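User: Predict the structure for this protein chain, please.
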Amino acid sequence: MVQVDVFWAYGWGASLAAAAGRPLARSEQPLATSYFVSTVLFLSLIWAPTGMLLLLRHPSWETMQAAPMFSSLSEWLVLGFGITNVTQGILGFYIGQRLLRQGKEYLAHLNWLFGYFGMFFILLYGWDGLGYDRFLYDRDMLPGSPAWVPGAATAGGVGAVKALGLFLTSSVAKTLYLDGMYLLPPFFWLTARWRRAAAAVGGTAVLTPSSLSIVGTYLGGVFLIGLGSAAVCALTVRSVAYLLGIHDQVARGLGQAPPNSLAHLVSYLVGLPLGLVLLWGTVLRPRGLASRLLAPLLRRP
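Assistant: Here is the predicted structure, written as structure tokens:
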């Protein structure tokens, strides 16, 4: 999705920097290394085309139901989408390298997890509390392909679990599967190869995890830490919104309840920091649950 890919692209670049580890940290010119060249090639030739395919085939879904068709999109938005899919990844890579350079390896891994956190928070909650409903709606599944309205995917007796089951067989899902087959193998190949090489350079070849362990740990970080953290913050923001009088986001989106725009804004300003503080104190702090989960990706387990 256009709004999501800003964070996802950042996560890809930051992930590759973290995988490169110590050899990248030691480089005086990180943007002249083979790591950076490979990352830019991955972002431009592998990652960016997958987003463009989704935008062309499913423009309403790819824009989180904001655009009814591809022709309704501004040319500048399409160009910006293609450009930021690369530049955001470069930014994630650069910040990751700077953290590694400063000896902050764990923060370099939290850096790529931040990208996934932003991605999942938008999918779960979004800017109107209905990110999940936008994500699960594929207009091609219904006769006439009606445009999305609040609650179209999960309200009206259709639960989120059932909506997810239907979505997994939708036309959007089939395109996502195709994208995954094109995108994931080269990414995991680079990640595993660089991680093992970094461990060998660091003199910890005996402790070097297998490629399968590296991939499994990465996926665990994505879904347990990235998705889990986003879910905690989404629930925290929603709870604050409820306390401030926003009891039904669908009704609010349909105009059947007061918009409460100020309360909606305050729910983010209060809920997001509150959720992040809670996560840092319980999961994300150094030597906490997150660092133990990510141990195979760190220099010393």
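The two ends are 35 Å apart (CA to CA).
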